[in-house]
Design a protein that fits this description.
alpha/beta, Rossmann fold, 5-stranded parallel beta sheet
Length: 448
């Protein structure tokens, strides 16, 4: 397997009574087998199953030819590709692109339009040239307010500068295959479109056309991305936690929350290219698991972003000396493609003798090892995911891993890890405000 997952520091042997006693997870083993069997039986149905999101690395393979053809048409059209989406329609794609874009062959520059911000949108339009710009609008429902509004503005900008027909040839849509405003628009105007599988929610959709189309257009090897997901899925076939890393991780996260009061889950990669992967993880974890449970405490630990080594200088003090209510996930890169010996002059060697014959990678490794040791000494449970490189295969494996961990954990809590009822409530309230309130500010024309 591309990933090596080290869980020793989650157990009581490493962190005393703050960790999970091995006997406790053994006691949970029958329940873990039941959870695994429930998911495994459902996965036989493929995309028709409840957990169809966990079959995407396999079920998308027959769709690759169509996705590649669409991506090639996009590349032939533009130098700048604007991806309009929010949350699950954007975070995973952006995380993968951010991790890989410096190594990609020449292709369109991706721009992600997510949060509604008139100032940022105006600046983006000022930087773009209509003749060299294309849009992909992504919304499973076809009616996500923030996405619709910004797509309308960008679409109007294209039409104003290029005319209706030329503008239409620079638009693509990814949405529900049958219903919603975007699906109707695609039909009415003949805008090329790809479907979001109905069983796949936004935050679980990065390995569907939601992520695959813009990533392929940008030059990411999506075949290898899916291959990484399939390898991880194969490793998770066993129903015993000792042989299924996603099942063991789910059990540990669940037990540390419900029995050890570890309410905060910090993810801290020690490689800058995974910074946005943590954003994707935070949405997946929070929106899937933060749920009420009748007659007991609510489900879910709070996901927190951290970045090694920078947050050793901003957050580590609290981690080490504040409340012992945290668990940690470190991500370590074991092989750096680019490295360099630290250049030391004669005077430098006197001040920094410990840097002689060391490389930059040696420094980040020492920072990681030191932080993990300090966290463990403070009796904070922690696990480490070792990755051999930052590439499409590894990223596909990481995405598949955390999607499975999240589903398993939700079922252990006894909640639905696929819905988001309170998010939907907020959307309804926002629409009510728009319907009942007068305009509060004067909006200037945002066209440059």
């Amino acid at each position: 397997m591309a990933l090596v997952i080290r869980t020793d520091n989650m157990y009581s042997d490493a962190v005393g009574d703050q960790g999970v006693h091995p006997a406790r997870i053994e006691t949970l083993a029958p329940r873990l087998k039941t959870v695994h069997a429930r998911v495994a039986e459902d996965l036989v149905q493929g995309l028709a199953g409840t957990y169809g999101c966990l079959t995407l690395s396999a079920t998308m393979v027959p769709e690759l030819e169509r996705i590649h053809e669409t991506a090639a048409a996009i590349r032939a059209t533009c130098q700048d590709l604007v991806v309009v989406g929010i949350g699950g329609s954007s975070l995973g794609t952006k995380a993968i692109w951010h991790a890989l874009h410096e190594t990609l062959p020449a292709g369109p520059r991706l721009h992600f339009v997510e949060n509604v911000d008139p100032y940022d949108l105006k600046l983006l339009l000022a930087r773009l040239t209509p003749e060299d710009t294309a849009l992909i609008c992504i919304s499973k429902s076809g009616g996500t307010l923030e996405t619709v509004v910004q797509f309308l503005v960008l679409r109007d900008w294209l039409i104003t500068h290029l005319g209706t027909e030329r503008a239409r040839r620079r638009q693509w849509i990814v949405t529900d295959p049958e219903q919603g405003w975007l699906r109707a628009l695609a039909r009415e105007e003949g805008i090329p479109s790809l479907p979001v599988p109905p069983s796949v929610g936004g935050r679980y959709s990065v390995l569907s056309p939601v992520g695959l189309l813009p990533l392929a257009a940008a030059g990411v090897d999506i075949d290898t991305l899916l291959a990484g997901g399939r390898e991880l899925a194969c490793v998770c076939q066993d129903g015993h936690f000792d042989a299924n890393p996603a099942l063991e991780m789910a059990a540990l996260y669940y037990l540390l929350d419900t029995e050890q009061d570890k309410r905060i889950s910090v993810m801290m990669p020690y490689v800058n290219r995974l910074r946005l992967f943590v954003d994707w993880y935070c949405q997946l974890w929070a929106e899937s698991l933060g749920k009420e449970r009748a007659g007991t405490t609510p489900a879910g630990s709070l996901p927190v972003r951290a970045m090694g080594a920078v947050d050793q200088h901003s957050q580590l003090q609290m981690y080490l000396e504040s409340r012992n209510d945290k668990m940690f996930t470190f991500v370590e890169l074991t092989h750096w493609e680019d490295d360099a010996i630290i250049p030391l002059g004669a005077a430098d060697r006197d001040h920094y003798p410990h840097l002689r014959h060391k490389t930059i990678a040696d420094i980040i490794d020492a920072e990681f090892q030191a932080t993990r040791e300090a966290i463990t000494d403070a009796r904070h449970p922690n696990l480490t995911i070792e990755i051999p490189g930052v590439n499409a295969f590894v990223l596909g494996s990481l995405i598949e891993l955390y999607q499975r961990v999240t589903v398993y954990t939700g079922l252990l809590y006894g909640i639905n890890p696929l819905d988001q009822p309170s998010v939907e409530k907020g959307k309804r309230i926002a629409i009510r405000y728009l319907q009942t309130r007068k305009r509060l500010t004067h909006l200037s024309d945002i066209r440059p």
